[in-house]
Amino acid sequence: MTALALFVLAGLAEIGGGYLIWLSLRESKPLWYGLVGGVILIVYGIIPTLQQFPSFGRVYAAYGGVFVVLSVLWGWGIDRKTPDLYDWIGSAVCLLGVLIILWGPRN
User: Fold this and answer.
1) Could you state, in order of their start, the residue ranges of all structural domains in the chain?
2) Contact between 14 and 45 (Cβ < 8 Å)
3) pLDDT tens digits, residue range 11-52?
4) Where are the transmembrane segments (predicted)?
5) 63 vs 48: CA distance, rounded Å
6) Disulfide-capable partner of 17 in 40, 67, 68, 81 (CB 3.0 to 4.6 Å)?
């Protein structure tokens, strides 16, 4: 459960930080949006180090799958872009990949 919470927290930090920078640069929001976004992205870089998995590559590969799902949900909730069937199928495939990467049987 801790691993999942850390993946979600990292995903929200990356997406949220990037979104604030996007708003600042692309949608003429104040500069401080981008600065806050940059700070949040620094925090995002720290969060995955709290994972108990020993391999950087596996943690980041698994995080990538979680990031895809969170991005679809962010687009739905924040940008009001309703996911279609293929968004959901792709998200499910990504989550299956996360499970295989982190908890697949290994020697």
Assistant:
1) 2-103
2) no
3) 999 999 999 999 999 999 999 999 999 999 999 999 989 988
4) 30-47, 59-76, 88-105
5) 8
6) 40
